């Protein structure tokens, strides 16, 4: 029986985790472990819905006495997870800051969009 399982998310996803089903796929088929290490190396973005699903999945695992450790998180990923955790605790919606970007040409905008 495997006691600890390390899951390198970069082997499953490119640079982002963007859906609930993506999170579910990470945890499907996990059994017989007592500790899971989620390695977020190279994961630069997690969507709000994916963060919510991650929190729910981790809570469910912890209720089943499986500990989950998240390592190598980018600051933006930490911020999204924390915002979602806070919104779960409070029924009040929190404002999210959105940065606006201006472009002087269509080419400049295209280069910006394609940089992601």
TrEMBL record:
Domain (STAS): residue spans on this chain: 1-81
Q: Which Pfam families does the entry mention? A: STAS
**Gene3D superfamilies membership:** STAS domain
Q: Which domain of life is it from?
A: Bacteria
Q: Write down the SUPFAM superfamilies for this protein, in alphabetical order.
A: SpoIIaa-like (SSF52091)
> Matching InterPro entries, A to Z?
STAS_dom, STAS_dom_sf
Q: What is this protein's record name?
A: STAS domain-containing protein
Task: State the species of origin.
Answer: Rhodonellum psychrophilum GCM71 = DSM 17998
């Amino acid at each position: 029986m495997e006691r600890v399982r390390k899951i390198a998310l970069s082997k499953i996803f490119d640079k982002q985790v963007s859906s609930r089903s993506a999170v579910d796929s990470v945890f499907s088929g996990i059994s017989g472990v007592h500790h899971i290490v989620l390695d977020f190396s190279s994961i630069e973005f997690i969507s709000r819905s994916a963060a919510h699903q991650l929190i729910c999945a981790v809570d469910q695992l912890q209720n089943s006495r499986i500990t989950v450790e998240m390592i190598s998180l980018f600051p933006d990923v930490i911020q999204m997870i924390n915002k979602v955790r806070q919104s779960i605790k409070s029924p009040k919606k929190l404002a999210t800051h959105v940065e606006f970007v201006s472009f002087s040409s269509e080419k400049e905008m295209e280069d910006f969009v394609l940089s992601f």
